[in-house]
UniProtKB/TrEMBL annotation:
Biased composition annotated in UniProt, kind: Basic and acidic residues: 29-40
Organism: Tepidiphilus baoligensis
Region feature Disordered, mapped onto this chain: 29-51
Keywords, in A-Z order: Kinase, Transferase
Source superkingdom: Bacteria
UniProt keyword Transferase present: yes
Protein name: Glucokinase
């Protein structure tokens, strides 16, 4: 790729429910990374010593995944809406699944994304894949502090930070600031066992999940479908049925005071607090924990309540430390897309250095 012509890029944030796209023109910054700081083969884990340059949007869309049979199909639909002749020199695709090479599969949707096949099909000089929570971390690192809602006050100290988001699945990741450098570490920890969370609950929950052939992972509970599953489980224990079709309807019913929905949401939030506390201990995330995504945003009134913070800090010997860590909520629905775009700009800056 000729760095001199690398001015237009495509960024995508591919989730299990929606795919967000951006086609943009990069505004080159006078400050570019030094040659030794150029990104290597794993873009989701590299750091940079300069802020990302800005971009000028040319086309932006959010498309529902259910309307398309494959990522190729949803990408084609987006490109059909873009200005003719605006061909990207670089595409950065963030996707909800583990990324270990040039080809990756979404965890909660049967789509496979092949970077080399995309480059060949569209004639793009460069295509990079990254985990969606690596993109979320890049987005948080670039977000102004005043755009984040504080769930727990605390002094930000140098060290790892955690990102956690219940969505179609449960996403996790870590990032580390070193001056203006941001290093990102993706995680698939949402698929870890719930462990010691509420043993009496876990006994019944495990039996319920076995009917679906699932194990009690954090993601079995802490995601949109998990909230639906939890509500059906609690209803069955009461000899009832749950009338709500999805997580937004359950959260809305809880906000209106419906007892079953309130119990489900309170259980969910307590579990989310426990999971966030576990993540903080695993990474010793002294910079803090950041919650992201539409479901976390919808749950803000419950996250502001003491139950969430109490579950977060209920970790025996380290409860006192956890009670002092910052917990923040990022409510921007385009945070992951902006993180992928910021990363694309840094790649372009590195190519020009």
């Amino acid at each position: 790729m000729s760095a001199r012509n690398a001015a237009t890029f495509l960024a995508a944030d591919v989730g299990g429910t929606r795919t967000r796209f951006l086609l943009a023109r990069w505004r080159e910054s006078e400050a570019a990374p030094d040659a030794h700081e150029k990104p290597q083969d794993t873009p989701s884990q590299e750091g940079f010593s300069r802020p990302a340059p800005a971009w000028e949007p040319l086309c932006q869309r959010v498309l529902a995944d259910d309307a398309f049979a494959s990522f190729t199909a949803v990408l084609d639909a987006f490109l059909a809406d873009c200005p003719p002749g605006a061909k990207p020199e670089l595409a950065v695709i963030a996707l909800a699944g583990p990324v270990t090479g040039r080809r990756a599969r979404l965890t909660n949707r049967p789509w496979t994304i092949d970077a080399d096949a995309l480059a060949a099909r569209h004639g793009w000089p460069r295509v990079e894949l990254m985990n969606d929570f690596a993109a979320q971390a890049h987005g948080i690192a670039a977000a102004p502090r005043e755009t984040l809602h504080v769930l727990q006050e605390g002094a930000i100290r140098p060290g790892l930070a955690a990102v956690l988001g219940p969505g179609t699945g449960l996403g996790m990741g870590f990032f580390l600031r070193e001056g203006e450098t941001v290093r990102v570490f993706p995680s698939e920890g949402g698929h870890a066992d719930l462990g010691g969370f509420d043993p009496p609950f876990l006994t019944s929950w495990s039996a319920w999940l076995a009917r679906e052939g699932r194990i009690p992972s954090w993601e079995s509970l802490l995601c949109g479908p998990g909230l639906v599953r939890l509500t059906a489980f609690l209803a069955a224990e009461r000899g009832q049925s749950a009338p709500w079709p999805d997580a937004p309807a359950i959260v809305a019913a809880a906000g209106e005071g419906e007892p079953l929905a309130q119990t489900a949401v309170n259980t969910f939030v307590r579990a989310l607090g426990a999971c966030a506390g576990d993540l903080a201990l695993i990474g010793w995330t002294v910079e803090g924990v950041y919650l992201v995504g539409a479901l976390a945003t919808a749950l803000r009134p419950w996250l502001d309540a003491p139950t969430f913070r109490a579950a977060f800090a209920a970790k025996e010997r380290h409860a006192g430390v956890l009670a002092t860590l910052p917990i923040l909520l990022a409510e921007d629905p385009l945070l992951g897309l902006k993180g992928a775009a910021a990363f694309a700009c840094r790649l372009l800056a590195g190519d020009r250095a």
